[in-house]
Write a structure and sequence with these properties.
The protein is globular, with a radius of gyration of 22 Å. The strands form three sheets. It has a three-stranded mixed β-sheet with strand order 4-6-5, with helices on one face. It has 19 helices and seven strands. With 424 residues, it is mostly helical. The chain has one domain. Strand 5 and strand 6 form a beta hairpin.
Length: 424
């Protein structure tokens, strides 16, 4: 790769510093998510005929901090777009990936700006570009799949007896962190930290976050049983985190470990298109928990109604009804209705208006289907496919199996399961 005079070490380091902080999921997460849920659940539980529209609150200081990066990113996009001159095979793709990451970061600053000024219409246009919307075929399939009967296949890798024993084991946030740290050490991943904090509403791997360092976040009050712990290890560490690490090594092999762009490799490694990234992780879930871990249809159904302009309360009522149709009791259906609707409306400043949608969750089903297709074609390690655009992967990707991975799957799920089940 040749560089113009404007592509300096200082410019690379500054760009890496900015990009490492901008994560759309952090932007759209309201700081009152937990209390808003408690208020909503309590109200709906007292009268199932009355669903309300929650009020989400965001940190204006954080939003302003993010918006302030916009103009600087636009300048860097021009510098790197004109200042990088590919010479060797693969370098043109690496340039495209970097520019794509910058474009996504600019969109993230614009999303923050729209939330700050409470413009849900503009915010919705940005999130739709970032994540797309479910197709009519996907929507129809989602409705058709709502059923009180759990499929018999695929089955869990663990016997019924092992599953029951695993379910008797209980783990709090500190214990989850312990096992995550164990698996990260097992693989030899560097630079990651596992953090317990009240700001997290779910367990999440974040290559980019406001602290500027890659982190696996765990909510303070999170508790799981042994089977769920193994599912999380497979999903978050052995799929998501390992995916990023393998992608970094792939970029290094193309641009070189000593490349001027090396500080940007971690940012480049996390795909903007998370379809297969999430689908591969759902494949891992299903191998642990069997058919009960199959991606549910409710996010796709919720997206369909939200994009029609229906309010939070209206969408939640529909999801509650669908979950009841699937055989859930009132308590579980109500909790599920909140979670699904919250996740597709986080980032909204007016949940009553019905003009905003954060459609990320619909890609889980689409991604799982794609991962299944890859498995049928005997692509053994999906983690090598999560770097770039799915449509162009198969023709140009040089790494597509365990042998060509820097970090092949060590089956940490099986190793930790053996320790738990046999007291090792």
């Amino acid at each position: 790769m040749q560089y113009s005079k404007k592509v300096t070490k200082g410019a690379v380091l500054r760009l890496a510093e900015i990009l490492s902080k901008l994560n759309p999921v952090e932007i759209v997460t309201p700081h009152n998510a937990k209390s808003a849920k408690e208020t909503w659940i309590n109200c709906a539980s007292s009268d199932l005929a009355v669903f309300t529209n929650p009020v989400f609150e965001y940190s204006n200081n954080t939003l302003k901090e993010i918006v302030a990066y916009h103009d600087e990113l636009v300048r860097y996009r021009q510098v790197f777009n004109y200042g990088l001159v590919p010479e060797f095979p693969g370098e043109d793709a690496m340039k495209d990936i970097l520019i794509s990451r910058i474009n996504s970061a600019i969109a993230t600053t614009e999303l923050a700006a729209s939330i700050y000024i409470k413009d849900d219409k503009v915010a919705a246009s940005i999130t739709k570009k970032l994540y797309g919307l479910p197709t009519s075929t996907e929507i129809i399939e989602a409705y058709d799949s709502v059923s009180p009967n759990t499929p018999a296949v695929p089955a869990s890798r663990f016997s019924e007896e092992e599953q029951e024993k695993l379910r008797t084991k209980k783990y709090n946030a500190q214990q989850i962190k312990y096992w995550f740290d164990r698996v990260i050490k097992l693989y030899g991943f560097k630079g990651w930290r596992v953090e317990i904090d009240k700001k997290y509403t779910c367990i999440d791997v974040r290559d980019k976050n406001l602290s500027g360092t890659p982190v696996v976040g765990i909510p303070v009050d999170r508790k799981v049983d042994g089977l769920k712990l193994l599912e999380l290890i497979g999903h978050e560490i052995e799929s998501h985190l390992r995916s990023s690490e393998n992608s970094i090594v792939l970029i290094q092999s193309i641009l070189g470990v000593d490349s001027l762009l090396a500080p940007l490799f971690r940012i480049m490694a996390k795909s903007d298109d998370e379809t297969l990234y999430e689908g591969a992780a759902k494949m891992s879930d299903v191998k642990v928990n069997g058919a009960s871990a199959l991606p549910l249809p409710y996010a796709t159904i919720a997206c369909n109604h939200a994009k029609r302009g229906e309010s939070f309360a209206d969408v939640a009522k529909i999801i509650f009804t669908q979950r009841k149709k699937a055989g859930e009791d009132d308590k579980k259906a109500l909790s599920g209705a909140w979670t699904t609707t919250y996740r597709i409306t986080r980032g909204s400043t007016n949940t009553e208006a019905g003009i905003y949608l954060f459609p990320k969750d619909h890609i889980y089903r689409k991604g799982y289907k794609l991962a299944r297709e890859l498995e049928e074609k005997e692509y053994l390690d999906y983690s090598t496919f999560t770097l770039g655009e799915i449509e162009s992967i198969f023709e140009s990707w040089p790494y597509h199996d365990e042998k060509s991975c820097c970090y092949p799957c060590l089956d940490a799920v099986g190793i930790i399961a053996d320790e738990i089940l046999n007291g090792k």
